[in-house]
User: Fold these one by one.
Assistant:
Number 1:
Amino acid sequence: MNIQHVQLRNITKRFPGVLANDRVNFDVRAGEIHALLGENGAGKTTLMKILYGLYQADEGEILINDAPVRIKSPSDAMRQGIGMVHQHFQLVPPFTVTENIALGLRSAREPMLDLDAVGKRLRELASRYGLHVDPHALVWQLAVGQQQRVEILKALYRDAALLILDEPTAVLTPQEVKELFVTLRRLTETGHALIFISHKLHEVMQISDRVTVLRDGRVVGTVATKHTNTKELARMMVGRDVVTSWDKPPVKTDDQILRIEKLSALDDKGLPAVKNLSLDVRAGEIVGIAGVSGNGQRELAETLVGLRRAESGVVSVAGRDLTNHDPADIIAAGVAFIPEERMTMGVIRDFTVQENLILETHAQPPLARKALFDFDKIAAHASQLVREYDVRTPTLDTPVKSLSGGNIQKLILARELSRAPRLLIAAQPTRGVDIGATEYIHKRLIEQRAQGTAILLISEDLDEVLALADRIAVMYEGEIVGVVPPNTPVDQLGLMMAGAKRVSS
Amino acid sequence: MKMEEQPQTRSMPGWQRALNALALPVLALFSALLLSAIFILGSDPVVLTAYAKFLSDPGAALGISWKTIVDAYHALFIGALGDPAVVSKELSEYFATGDTKDLTLAFYPITESLVTATPYIFAGLAVALGFKCGLFNIGAEGQIYVGAATAAFVGYSVEGLPWVIHMPLTFLAGTLAGAVWAGLAGFLKAVRGAHEVINTMMLNYVAFNLVHFLLNGPMKRGGATGHIPISRNILESAYFPAVFPEPLRFHFGFFVALLVAVGVWWFLWKTTLGFEIRTVGANPRAGRYAGINISRNFILAMALSGALAAMAGAGEVMGLNHNLAEGFSPGYGFDSIALAMLGGGHPLGVVLAALLFGTLRAGATKMQSLAGIPIDIISIVQAFVIMFVAAPKIIRWVYRLKGEGGFETVLMRGWGG
């Protein structure tokens, strides 16, 4: 399959009440990486689904090598040499890599499988593109980065000349991102065309040749990467300048709100995850916990809010011992929690915006008297929060599952902060959230700090920790390896995150 | 509004949504009747003989097929809802002469359908309420028997009370017994993590055998001669009164069932306890963090579910049979699992589904006597309806209905996955 040039011309796609794509022009050539940048809901995914045959455009046309084509289904797209690597992998975990590649393809020896032939060609492809993966490995045993390689190999095996990568770095560690970028470069050198969908600016700057920015379904502009910078791209995406650094007056008090003393907890497998950990957070202070994920951060947060048993040690809030108390008690003591897994713990997907906003306080006046809800009060409470926290929702009765990630996070923030908490535990508050929403959430955290709330910010995003925290505690294998000020050089933090160096606090 | 991912969730008018929700079950019923026709043909020896000579006389085979199907469904319809011609004739006669005797007979079929729908409503609500808390109560049948046995006992043993006290007391006693019975399964799940499917299933056997024991021992009717063990009759002061004169069996329990359905809806959507139950059912992890006691809600939901199922049993004793007999329920509790699914777990849906099941069951008897079609055909119709409702994609595909993104998700699998 030979693709020199793919053009999307004047693509318009309407959904009831929404203009998802409005006369969008986009093109990609062999040998280049064209980044498609935009906030959640800007129309990136819709445009790519049209190119991949999952949606049909209402107006406009698609040209491959200057000839108009009709792409009515993903199999049409594949026949034209277009492949897509989805954000959520489409693999069968109990199958081997080879079996996953062979899935859905005709075998040369029907009705018998011919996995040997598949494996052979797979190895050729893997070595040609440097995508090393064991053909006999079971997919569930592979690291996320390797699974993504399998996805890319799957597309290459089907002779894809144009690859659409939908937020490919969202699930990868920094090291895996580096490896992915090497692969992408090699693919362009061999004449593939690549579309790289992202909302992460520095990655786009690093990997792409050209950038097209979408906003509200329209193309804001297409620029050569070497002639632009992150600040300009952010402005194009959001439509205004974006704040990334915050002024924080110094912490005024010495009021200890959260005190953790020699806390230990186990993970789901029963292995020690938090080990003899001590830390404190003062009123009006943000303490950031930095660290590579899987070093006990999730278990620490869950133990603090009463969802996981502390094996030993003490957790106290404003002088009150809350070790191994019920979540209800801990909530009543003024602790708010923004959980890492917002879809499974933060909200109830099938419940409405309104219902999600009253979780935790649903049984208390003024929302309920005795066991009966006061629906007028609930609606007033909910609509005030939706307005105040800029949650974009059609109605209060819209199920939460149809909101975007950023809006769901704002909803959780609204619910948790509306209780005027003494202590806020925020775990990965901006993961997978677009720039506008990230800026908004940061602003709210800073405001909350100014009001005297103690904030424990757990984040894998070092930039976020550096921008917000007054002190940074680095966590490694369940322990705090050091507490350092936010002006600590990134290299040194990196070493600490790898467990190499201890700094006494 | 930025809503790229779910473009379908725009608000549409309420009636349109209701119509959409109804389209699927109605088409499922239609398809089920269509498919069941094949089984009706297969069960009829006359039709089979005609098909043996299909090559020499295809017209006869097709003709007799058509006639058999029309006869069967005609009988089903008349058996379930009454014969429109007879009804209108008796109505005009009633207005002319004021004679109600024949009129009541004309209405007999439709009231029988409602009589059968009554226990279905109660038991369907029981299973649906369990669903809302994420619990699968498959013990409704046993709870029906426990409720019936308790109601029967209170109904005949407590004497000298006026109707206004004895009737509610009897109903409450049966209800409470069901609550305790199922609450036990809830308790075991809450404290020991024992799965409610296993527990309620096992409790079914305990209930069946308990009733067997009671009817052959303590509750045995003195001097009973029939083959089926039976209890004494309950006192009239414990009756759900009949709404119409004999021989119509339609009783007051139907209205109680409707009232209870409204109550269940009100409880689930208007009270904090109902909200907590729904929260636990939708996402126990989030519920736990919100300070909701999961164990307590499991016990509460299970007890309420058992109470509702027991109402079906108590209602049958108080409104229809006026005694406890072994095997008095033809599997209302088991059918209600399917019925609750058909009703989408919503009280209104449950009532509609119960009316459908009641109608089919009542009509089936007539279909057997008039057209000679085995009563089991109705089980096949029911099974098809449930299959189609459980697999909505088939119906959407056959009738080219616009789905809720159903096809997109199929196509989303990408590379031949």
Number 2:
Amino acid sequence: MKENYVIEAEGLTKKFGDFTATNHITFKVHEGEIFGFLGANGAGKTTAMRMLCGLSRPSEGRATVAGYDVYRQAEEVKKHIGYMSQKFSLYDDLTVAENLRLFGGIYGMKRKLINEKTDRLLAELGFTSKKNAMVKSLPLGWKQKLAFSLAIFHDPKIVFLDEPTGGVDPVTRRQFWELIYQASDRGITVFVTTHYMDEAEYCDRVSIMVDGCIKALDSPRNLKKQFGVDSMYDVFLTLARTAQRSSD
Amino acid sequence: MKVFASFVRKEFKHIERDTRTLVILFAMPIILIVLFGFAITTEVKDIRYTVLDMSHDQYTQRLAERFAANRYFIYKGEVSNRQQAMAKFNHGDVDMVIVFGGNFAQELGHCTGGSIQLLLDGSEPNQAATRAGYAQQVIADFAQELQQSSATGQQCNIVPVTHLLYNPQAISAYNFVPGIIGLILMLVCCMMTAIAIVREKESGSMEVLLASPLKAMTIILAKLVPYFVISFADLVIILLLSRYMLGMPFAGNLPAFIGISLIYIIVCLSLGLMISCLCSSQLAAMLISLIMVIPCIYFSGMAFPIESMPTTFQHVSTVMPARWYVSVVRKLMVQGVAVKYVIEETLILAFSAAVLLSIALASFKKRL
């Protein structure tokens, strides 16, 4: 059964001086699962995610991602993951095709494969006419869809999404989640942080972080049952009220 | 290697599409050269002068004629006393007053030297010094001629002779071109590099790149390549302009000059890297780079001669890499001296390059 887990974290901790951003978190993520990683601002979500992506070294504890240790085999981890950050979607001054070619190139994909996949991807998204358009001329929703497609362009085992749908309307968010489901159907594990509780409902399982610790972890349905409430919003509120840290 | 190439291509595209920056990068050296070459000149011309002759003998007459014949001087009439001279000065009618002492001819005869006083406007000390220099040159020539024509061959010093080395015409282009080279390379390598790296940090793309299998070193090197190319192109532009537009010959060893320029470029790139580690916004990067760029203007002698600075500042200038580089450029380009005379500067630059580059790379790794 153990092979089924693509992310395993055990007592993962990150300290910045006296401040413990992430405090001994332990969890496992199944292969092909959509795992929601929830928490208020400053709860330690981004820090935890950065450690899992090999961007930041854990102070204590260990974690494996796609079977590689995030501390000792960060380079291997990076080859098998995709990452989409909340701030950056794509290079504004490059065209859609150039962005895809660049990231394909970074992951060592062959030129021919990049071209094939670019055409297929743009056809699927209905973006073919925008192939040579500058990214800055596209609406935010499109950029985010493209950024997600870019993050899974090299067929990673796991994709990490850091608040991917910030600032877009509910319709576009819904469309974005269609893409996430498609990726999940292809066997890509999705690890997503979000603020939107409706999005939490779309996840297979969610964890909720408060003050650097994971306070709850289960499927949305079980969590609602456990806390005796009707929505993930209420689950989140119940837990978030216990927070000591101010959310900046 | 292919990964590196695709990343370098991206960097070139960023620059290529940022038309405004691109224009600045290539237009700046041209504009600076044209500005300093033609418009802003520190060269002194058209010195308006008046004569106060208290001797009225044949020698003062002849010397006055010399001044009148010189194309740098413009005769503004004679005055008969000091009050008149001062009045002309105060009205800004003249830049210089030549005062001949009462017994000029006799003094000259005794070879104690005829007494001449040059009155100059000290509110512009650099210009005044240059004007005095010109006047002394005219007087010295005259004295020498007198000496040769006199039968006895006696020595006749009138005033201490100052001779301008290397740049006898005091052409200001010779003075500012080295400074401009130092400045442009600093701007392009240091400031543009810092901004380019910080831009990726600011937009968050750096994080995405670091979450990819790309090595931090690859990202940095790929970022440096375009600016290296551009700064070299700028260097060539400046050299060609100064040769063919300003008619300034390249006097010294060109390969050595290019080699030392490369060392200086590495110094600037390392500084840019260090700044990019310190800053998280493009604005901050720009401001901190200016701290590196301004000494370039100050300590290169481009605007202010180092020699006339307070000693403290002269000491401060020794830690500015730009100062040493500009000194090399001046020696190799203008004076045309042998390479062995620039060894000290070269060693200092090479040492700074090694130290700065290792600090920059170490701090860059640590930050990420």
Number 3:
Amino acid sequence: MTPPPPPPLLELEDISRRFGGLLALNRVSVRVEEGEILGLIGPNGAGKTTLFNLISGVTPPSAGRILWRGEPIRGLSEDRVNRLGIARTFQNLRLFGPLSCLENVLVGLHHRGRSSLVGALLARPGFRLQQAKLRLQALELLELLDLAEQSDQPAASLPYGLQRRLEIARALATAPRLLLLDEPAAGMNPGEKEELSGLIQRLRQQFALTLLVIEHHVPLMMRLCDRIAVLNFGERIAEGPPEAVRRDPAVIAAYLGVDG
Amino acid sequence: MSGLSLLVQMGLAALLALSVSLPLRCGQLSLATPGFYAIGGYVAALLSTRWQALGGAAATYPLPSLLLEMGVAALVAGAVALLVGRPVLQLRGIYLAIATIALVEMLRVLNLNLEWSGGAVGIFAIPQPFAGPGGYLAFTVLLLAAWCWICARLDRMRLGRAMAAIREDELAARCMGIATTEVKLTAFVLSAVIAALAGVVAAHFLNTWNARQGSFDASITTLAFVVFGGSRTWLGPVVGGLVLTALPELLRPVGDLRLIVFGLVILIGPALFPQGLITPERLDWLGRAWKSQGR
């Protein structure tokens, strides 16, 4: 007898989400396997960001199950979901604007530094050593995303493309197993987009990450992703390797519009 | 009012301003400070007058008893804050402000009507731990210095950083794994403890305590300290509390005009300095200017 295969890292089973009269997601099922990069594409309003909000605990699903390593996590708050190992970035950038880049990453490191209140207040040597370690970790993450020079600048003062990278650094600081990237290339110039693809591959290697990526830039997704799932009007219309998805008639119809 | 007494009042005001500023650091507009100030005062008044009745008729009230009162007041205020904070902190913005005003008013009406709090008359002849205002001043300065130090340390601690993150974007902070309810509750409890400790000192200093201490207008006054001084540093609220408490006394020579001048200062201050008198940027600039001067 062979042992049963391990459950997928994340599994969505028949997830639906209704906003008033609008069915934003209709019985969507998606499996994310450990170590893969799964792309999520679809026209505007297809429900991609809604799906991210459901996974990260921001909005509860109206129906269906969300399984993390086979355990249901539906109904957990955002911070509990994050501590399970799911981190995300935001489509519309939600950095802590006046805080420096370094401080933004340090917020992500919140749970790495457990210290006693008294030790912290008195700035005991143990506390100071830990502070120095956290700072170093934060600087390493900034370095990795090529933001070391900006570490003392307020996050809000960075150009758009750098803010996107800072969001990734901050999310990585929470030590995720699964990283959800919501349009990481939006607002980037072609050169930056090119670099981003390599960067994401490097991060996957270095942190043994699994990634779920929303992105409109299809050529980038074709190169980057192991598999691609396509959403349209809240329904999953295709899922598979990039080449197969590209040739799928339903996908072509959704993007280009086909009569009858 | 003697100069020393005014200085004590200024120190207590600065403590209350720190109390208001802590929830504001995580973006929570709580006006509950006068309520916890009243609780602290009643704990002090009840315990110390009881001590006198028990026959402890020394000329001055012993300092260890004062410290004990402060411990009890901190515990009582902290417990009330924990109990009330969990439901109340679910509210946002102006609704939290309204709910905390309601808390202050409820405590006031309770104290006005309960027998053990002395009803409308209040509690009189609270024993004196210090012979004169000088002792109160030293004690208040110590207390203020301790809390300034704690609030300054917060900036370098993960608790302070988490509070700032919540102020800027609560949802993003939660998505980064921060248990925002616990952090907000911690700030609320700390705020209650500071206010209660100020209340203990104030009850002894004023010699009498009643339901007029800690009313709605005190909510607004303490908030004005923070708006005037600026809520983004620990120094801002302290300066706001000191200046706005001193101002009416310093303006005494101009007679009735002082109320107009005081009103103008409160109006013009936030209009000219919407972030308050003291901001991190201005402190940085001052620090740099001072350094280059030294060279």
